[in-house]
## 1
Amino acid sequence: MEKKIENHNKDIEILIVDDEKDFVATMEFWLKSQGYKVRTAFNGKGALDIIKQQKPNIVFLDISMPEMDGVETLRRIREMDDELPVVMITAYGTEENRDAAYRLKANAFFDKSKDFYEADHIIKSILHFFAKAKKEPNK
Amino acid sequence: MPNKDKKDKVYLEVAKLILITSKKIALYSKKHPIVKESLNQLYQHLTILLKENSQVTIFVGGEELILNDISLSSTLAGSKELVDKMRELEIDSISFKQGMELSELADLLSLLSIGKKLDKNEEKLKTTFLSNGFSHIKANVVHYEKVEEGQKVTSSVTKDAEAFLEKKEKIKKDVPHEGELAILEQYLQGQVTGEILERHKEDVISKLLSEPSQLANIVVQAAVACGSLAKVLAKLRECIIDEFSDELIKKKRKPDRILASLERAIVKSIDTDSSASQIKKEIDNLHEIISGFDDNLKIHMLAKIYEVTKPNLNKFLQRSKRLIIDSKELNRVSPDLKAALIEKGAKEADSDVLLARLEDAIESRKKISIAKREYEELKNKAKLFDKTLLDEIAKATQDLKRKNKRLAGEKERVDTVIRNLADGMIVVDKQGKVMMINPAAEQLLGIDKKEKIGKFLQEGLGSHQLVALAKGNLADEAEAVSKEIELSSNDEQTKRILRASTAVVENENGNTVGMVMMLSDITRQKQVDKMKSDFVAHVSHELRTPIIATKKSLSLLISKACGDINEDQNKFLNIANSNLSRLSRLIDDILDFSKLEAGKISINPATFNLITLIQEVMQSLDTWVKDKQIGIDLSLGGKEIDVEADRDKINQVLTNLIGNALKFIAEKGKIIISCKNITAGSGGNSFEAVEVGITDNGIGIEEKDCQRIFDKFEQVSLISPAGVGGTGLGLHICKQIVELHKGKIWVKSEIGKGSTFSFTLPKKFSTQEKKEVKD
């Protein structure tokens, strides 16, 4: 059973961007335990560098970060790629930024305080949606 | 008495001719035929009269012209002119004697020529006439008598006159009285007879009428001289009745008045004369004696009047009614009066008629006098009323002045307060025109009071500055409104935020007369608010970040993602994890609460399926449900109930309510969750809504607490099973969230049986409400 999951997730690369290194560590560990490929960045600039190098399948982007915050980072990402799936990591007190993120085509929101299973669920939903979208234009 | 009437006519003719001739002489010369004609006529008339009388006398008495006892003033037009002329020439009387010549008469008349100034010759004539008279015409006859007595004219009076002159010389040394009054004094003392007095009665009476005090003096002097006031007064009475009554009647003087003034004068005279104190006691009798005078005098006078006016009843009544004061007096004197009238030739029946008519006349006069008195009283009342009114007005004016002053003082105080208010104040009228602006408002809005009074506030102001001020029809805005105004400025430093609280001003009838606006500078308050909310956001982030990291780490260990753990390790990791969750929830509640308090919670409405959400919540609580072996009964009305609401906030409400049920329920309890479509509101305001109910069979809540538990920190006071903790903020937050969605939340409960928490949500989120929340 575990092998099967690993096989499913091993080609999926996820970028986690958050200035909270401890949180990033736990999330990275958990996603890796689920078989995903994980890369991490601790600020917007680092994230943009990684995305320029090689695009991940999904970006988990913390909405509130010092210096370049999540919304600004998302805006820069959108300048490069309009369709890259980005999940905004939210926490209490960051509600005011949600509208801005929506407008910049953030694909989903993940509450930090929620279980990591939810993150897994979001990943699967997005990938499923994109796979479907790719097939449909051909029809 | 036809003879007498004829005589009257002749006298009247004589007087007329004197007047006419003197007027003619004034216009023409003495030798002019017209003058001559009337002069001759006068001369003939006078000659005829002088054949019958030893002398004819024209006498000025008071304002009247008297010719040989006949008063002419009432019948002769122009007599006043003659009287004035005689006065001017200092002539009291003119006497014509037998043997008078035409030239003498002509000289006299040229003297009397009215309106003409005296020339030199005439001046000489006047002096001659006054000092010596002409041969047969004399001025001021009394002097003439005195002077001429010894030399000329034979008369029965001569002897008495000589005696009088002797006496008079004697008296002059003792008393200061001159001439006629001296005679009166002597008469009163019994020194001269009534005959002598009668010859001077005209002078005596005129003196008596003009100066009763002199008469009084004489009476007193005489009383002192003979030692008896009563005797003197009796003599005076005799004198007045016998000698003067005719004259008094002619002069229409009322005897009672003369006597009253005389009485006063006598009393006064005696009072001031201490040497006369010995006769003071006699004064008591005075009034009685004078009253006695009165009656007798009146009877005598009435009889005399009757005699004079015999054929003319009306004339008699007219003259006589003035003499009688009232019918009482008439009754008193009527027997004597009747006798007197009969004596004068009246028949008894006639005299009765006369008396009856006289009584009527008196009564009618009395009525008039009563009417007069009433009129006087009314006049006095009117005067009093006027005075009172004026006093009242003056008082009222005084009061008003005082009140005005006080009000002015109060206004000044209020003005000063308004002027010095830190907050801006603007008063506008019903149309929105500015009535008043205080300096603080001027400063806050950067406007000039002088330019704004009487104009609309918005005039000349940027609309972006003051959108909220005096907007719309005032009458529509019945309630006080509070709005924030941002005064835009390019410079962030000078940017100001004002709070404008407007209240409608009503008069006592409840009509809107204007609006008062208070402007407070809340820029600083806003800055503090922002700092506070920034702080909350910061703290929430800072508190949660380590908790989340810790929690994630624990979950990784518990989920054995990092390798196997033994049972004890698992147990303690779980304890750490659950306490961490509790800490996390506490922090969430506190932060939610502080945000609600600051009005900082925003609703992000989206349409979602409520059934799905309930299922998700149940799933997240699944572990807890299984642990406590709770039976869950989902009674959901269908598979899909879409609502427009903030999904996360409703999640929070559901988690909180279901979590509470789990918390307060015993193991193996039961929870029923229901969800159904309803129609909320009423009438035209009804709308589609959904009602969610969570029923447990837990410990229940006392009825008195059912409302209270939605207040802040209320759980603390409730009986809760050991180990169940919380901030007591959960239900309060739920209530706030539901109400922000325009829904309702309530609880029905019974102790020992369980509780049902219910809330409703409108299916469509009202954007208007959302706006209000944000504001």
Note: The radius of gyration of chain A is 15 Å.
## 2
Amino acid sequence: MTDPQSAERGGSCLHCGEPVPQGSSGGAQFCCSGCHAAFEMIQGMGLESYYQRRCLDPDQPTMRPDDEDTRFDFQAFADTDELGVTTLHLMVEGLQCAACVWLIETVMRKQPGVQHARINMTTRRLVLKWTADEADAEQLISSVTHLGYRLAPYDPSLISAENQQREKQLLRAMVVAGFAAGNVMMFSVSVWAGKDMGEFTRNSMHWLSALIALPAIAYAARPFFHSAITALKAGRTNMDVPISLAVILASTMSLVETVRMSEHVYFDSAVSLVFFLLIGRYLDSRARGRARAAGENLMGLKARAVTIVLDDGSREVAPPERLKPAMKFLVSAGERIAADGIVLSGESDIDTSLINGESVPVQARTGEKVFAGTLNLSGPIKVEVTQTGEDTLLSEIVRLMEAAEDARAKYVALADRVARLYAPVVHTLAASAFLGWWLIGGLGWQDSLMIAIAVLIITCPCALGLAVPAVQVVAGGRLLQRGILLKTGTALERLASVDVAVFDKTGTLTRGTPQWVNRDALSEDDIHLATSLAIVSKHPLSRALSREIAGVPAAEGVEEVPGSGLKLMTADGEVRLGRRGWCGVDDDGEQAEAELWLARPDVAPVRFAFSDQVRVDAAETVAALKAQGIHVMLLSGDRSAAVEAAAKEAGIEDWHAALKPADKVDRLHKLAAQGKNVMMIGDGLNDAPALAAAHVSLSPSSAADVSQTAADVIFQGDKLAPVLEALHVAKYADKLIKQNFALSFAYNAATIPMALAGFVTPLIAAIAMSTSSLVVISNSLRLGLGKGFTLKRQIEPQSNKPVQPAAHKET
Amino acid sequence: MESLIYLIPIALVLGLLALFAFLWALKSGQYEDMEGAANRILFDDDDTPPKKDEPKKEAKDQD
């Protein structure tokens, strides 16, 4: 397949758009053989127009078919009905744009037996239906995973059905309120405009308004009534208490006034109040729902199945929860270990970076302990479970995490703090207006009550209710487009006040994959020979080597010795590429960095050094954080030398190495005690307690499940720039929210005296209410138009450019 | 003014019709994937003729 001439050209892969490494296994036009196969499959189905339709999104994971071995128990999620039609719900990762949706659906429908395949692009979930006799789940799904997408089954009944239901109910209520508000306003405007209108006509207009408004309020305002009753039962007040009071009082009094055939009724105010507030509620719930759905997808894609070996030697694929102590399970190369245990047979290297931040893989031989969450790199091993659930290293971490989280649960969102102060003020004002006019002002109780209602309506926090959710929806949407996911509602608020940033090293500040670093120190012959062996292996160090070197064909007859390295019999004797001890070099036990040795007969062994490189934009990100006056720290569980090197490269002066999870939490607590608001950015299991303890925390999407659960924000992609983008948006959002509050308070300050004085007519109330809400909404929308972050543009000059393979442009 | 006697009911009925149309659309799941709906109309399967050497597979395309 290798075409040495065009290999020199470089360029991007026709399938995934990544740069083609020299000497790629997929030939000159593809970055790997997986992409090549995917391209041929798409072409074979006559779907190559896909490549013209799509545009690659640089913030999404690449489309390169994955070779990390992920297996799911699809049958457990598939549901077959009496007609023999099987339904399976799947989460899809790797969707770049709508063309991917089209491609997956078309590929699925071309499979025999498939009856229905439809992707919901908003939630990135696929519903697949097929005739059970004609097709098999594994086979159907592999046709799509070979294209570079990742699919994971889920149980739709377990996923936030309740929240979805509530969101739909809010939307329905909002629409009913909107309809009623529009129609009642139609009558109100006629009444206001028709000064010469006869009393009978005006009164029939009021009756019609009542006919529309009362049922609509009874239906649409239920969310507020519910919440107000819950609060009152608990002995508290919240924003919904004055809202409910205003709505109920206004509509009852208006009904009484209608019966009395008086001039002013407030039906329109009551209904539009409900309508505007429901808009705020709906936006709020939608922003949360979106983030939650994306979070569930991330978790779902990580839920894996394990291969259990039963006592009679037969194998069974099952979810990891089924593992019990003393059970045995198989872990193939490239798979994550599901439970703590002891290696029974086999030999391999284990990547423990997610557990302890250690960047060099450790060797695992028979009888050694392995931990849940670590990655098996080179050979298949059989493991006997020693501990599950409560007793694992993982649950130890979770315990630390829960203790740390307690402190953060006390944080109260800005909107709630404002509401706590606001609600009593509103009640007092309305009550004093009523009592004042009735007892001192000498008005009748009905007129006094009307003034009190006007005060309630005017002070009612339409604009206030929209101030926070409107900004959060716009901010959340903007961040989601950049692959940044807000998991908690208050994350933005907390981000805005950050003054210390703490990074973890492995996998956060660095890429978490080794890079070959001593090319200059080696001779071309050595490199050539080593690469011809390394090309065969999937070990990360071998990969790091073969990625760098062009056009070297794989040597014939290379054998992989798990846990040790690669060997090749040549005419001169055995050539070995692997561990220090195995290649005949003294093993002093302490490796400074990851390394491979090349041993040949009669020649001194040669060392290939690797190190975990910091992310491409780490230094710029750190510099930009410092420029914003944020103190940057590095806390790592790795060895001192490795941490120092990474800190130096990223430009961080304040670094600490060899910290245990509890040490990290201690340091964060100390910082918090000094009054600092700490932002923690980490990915490993060992960072999870620290993530939970920090004022606000971020995780890359490659992080361990537990860390993602603990983090407030999850970002995708190979760069650290999302951290800056999140900070930037958070600060902007914070500014806008404060402006919104200022605007709605200014409006209140102007209108409350008028209401207290009894000058407010329904017309003035309607105008004041709508303008203040519109002003707040338009102010919030500025965030969406806001300019992107400058650093981001310097790093990604070519972002969002559609990738079109030149060779396949014919239509 | 007499015109109001039939104009108002007409206005209300039209408004109600729109309301029920929306509630029906919501119930039948048309608001579940706004992003997908916006993009789907751009893909018309008819403009991708199958390759000549490819045997025409009759897939059960529904939409």
Note: The two ends of chain A are 27 Å apart (CA to CA).
